[in-house]
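A student in our group prepared the protein record below, which I am reviewing. What it holds is a sequence and that sequence's fold in token form. My question to you is simply how this chain folds and whether the tokens agree. Do not assume that whoever made the record got everything right. I have pasted the whole thing underneath without changing anything:
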Amino acid sequence: MMPMPTRLLLLVCALASCARDDAAPPPPSEERVGVEILSPMPLAIMGDSLRVLFGAFGATVVPATGSRVDGEVHHHLFVDVDVTPEGEPVPKSEGIYHLGDGADSLWIALAPGRHRLIAVLAWGDHVPVTGASRDTITIEMVSPGP
């Protein structure tokens, strides 16, 4: 069975697709590129681990190849650390998770307390995509009771 946040997201998407707007469609615009954290929602999480699920738009998520290919990206997650300066590759260090295999989710273990999660899209060479939107959430990990 799907977790409750996933089922709720699917229901909202289904309802939104039924909505109709008789107004004229918006003018064409440049396609945006970015990432969203689809799960978890900013709330208290029981236990010591959680699954982070990403959603990318305006680009295709693929395994990192070491080089840049237009429109192909992969995910990175920064936990309680600042994002890499623009134009610099994302380092391999504590608090930074590379999803270089093209995955759209990962499980992480976190200590109880407040944590900041930042999702970032990067090229195959691990340099963040300039101008791509990022998503930041704050969560509270709570130890299970006795």
User: Anything to note?
Assistant: Helices lie at 4-18. DSSP finds one helix and nine strands in the chain. Residues 4-30 have pLDDT under 50 and may be disordered.
